[in-house]
Amino acid sequence: MTGWTAGDIADQSGRIVVVTGANSGIGYVTARELARRGARVVLGCRDATRGKAAEELMRAQAPGADVRFAQLDLADLASVRAFAEALPEDRVDVLVNNAGVMALPHRRTVDGFEMQFGTNHLGHFALTGLLLPRLRDAGEGARVVTVSSGLHCLGTVDPRDLQMDDRYRRWIAYGRSKSANLLFVHELSRRLAAEGSPIVAAAAHPGYAATNLQTAGVRMEERALAERAVALLNRAVAQSAEDGALPSLYAATAPGVRPDDFFGPRVLQWRGAPARSPRAAWTRDDKASRGLWAVSERLTGVTYDWKG
């Protein structure tokens, strides 16, 4: 994978891809590049105005692209179910669980979960389970790519305080939600292997890429000075969304991707071409992943149907 770029993506003609959070940042770039290579791409976006604008822009940047916006709010489990039920495609070759929120002030989802855990993990857990039959129908080559973060190292999931009711700290909550992403991929990989499925579940992270994630939290609190400081930092040291999307694109399309792989930028996990990324030992803990799976099924009401 040395020096791997978007130009190395193989032809995706005939493949059907769902990308969450595809209206901006690395989700937009991921969707656009897959569409450029011939995939039919469903843009799962919370905001209809932004989602439709992204669809139009994508068609302008990639003439002939087969892309379609569909409403999806991962902070609302009813929306997740509605999205899955309304999806007209009879199979899904690639699901990219990209959407996320970062370091927000304390908020709750529609269903009452802490916003970062609810959106980043539970919403994608539910979506993947609901789309699993269509991933199975895609057969050989089907993949689930979940976008985590190098900042998962800030903390692992605490089963005693999943919602961080005792003491909410925004960056710890973010780190825990990103550890939950990796625990999810670990357990999903184990369960897929147990049923003999060819579906590959892998994870990726963008390093430090300039997107609107960094400014969302301070903007919600109307901290204009902090927002300007973050914007300046992004311009000074962050890599572009185009480069930040490369690990996701690699995980979604490259040959040799293995179950439970984790890809990020090569240089200090910060920037550069994609490479296998180190991860905290707790994200491969079988007991923790099984426990998170059980509680995720209970909280979302989505139970995966396993064969064999």
UniProtKB/TrEMBL annotation:
Query: Molecular function terms in GO for this entry?
Result: oxidoreductase activity
Query: What Pfam family does this protein match (any one)?
Result: adh_short
This chain belongs to the protein called NAD(P)-dependent dehydrogenase (Short-subunit alcohol dehydrogenase family)
- What InterPro entries does this protein's entry cite? NAD(P)-bd_dom_sf, SDR_fam
Q: What keywords were assigned to this record?
A: Oxidoreductase
**Domain of life assignment:** Bacteria
For whether the record's keyword set contains Signal, the answer is no
